[in-house]
Amino acid sequence: MLKYISAADRHHAAPAAWLNSYFLFSFADYFDRDNLHFGPLRVFNDDSVAAQSGFPQHPHSEMEIVTLVLEGEITHQDTMGNKTTIKAGEVQRMTAGSGLAHSEFNRQDKPLHLYQLWFIPGQKGLTPSYEQKDIGFLSGNKNELVPLVTGQKVLEDVVYMNSNSTVYWSNLSADKEIEFKTFPIRLTFIYVKEGVIFVNGTELGPNDQARMTDDDVVQIRASKDAQFILIDLPASEANY
């Protein structure tokens, strides 16, 4: 079963002059009892940060936080001692676990565009940790699903997280098709960055979503060159 959510139905937030965000799930001042999470995917924010601006130090706990940089670069600093820069095409994972604090700034003279995803971890009280990898997903392999971050250890050369989930990216050319095999006990989430795709026959354009349950196969065909994210998730909390 596929639930289609249009770009217009995202929650738009602009809490500061330097920040423009779209919340796909309840977050901050946006609360919808029927849109709290999708499996362990608790937060998906599509953020644009103005030049020379950013988030001052703030705390987190009991979340797996994944950041995908799409344009520009972000400077990260945390209470674990990490001081890093994440550039476009790179993936960052931070296990907040028992607690940490961090800051995120755009130190460049051009805007920053990123997706930030939070996953409910499979275990509480984890020791905070950090990982970053240059996967080059924005200009990488075409017409396939490229894993970026996962809690499924059968996948290699990806960022690891403490969630039984996998985040994929695809650069799908017009008129090409890919197939994702899943199970009725799993969930599939798709969010389109650009282009047009058909997911099991349903059309999705830029910033549209598909949330899928009880499926065995997900067929994806592009009618225009497209970029999108696909997330494979457990349906049951016992499997997070």
From TrEMBL:
Fe cation binds at residues 58, 60, 102, 104. Belongs to the pirin family. Signal peptide: none annotated. Pfam families: Pirin (PF02678), Pirin_C_2 (PF17954). Coiled coil: none annotated. InterPro entries: Pirin, Pirin_N_dom, Quercetinase_C, RmlC-like_jellyroll, RmlC_Cupin_sf. GO terms for molecular function: metal ion binding. Binds 1 Fe cation per subunit. Residues 156-233 form the Quercetin 2,3-dioxygenase C-terminal cupin domain. This is Pirin family protein. Residues 14-118 form the Pirin N-terminal domain. Keywords: Iron, Metal-binding. Gene3D superfamilies: Jelly Rolls. Its cofactor is Fe cation.
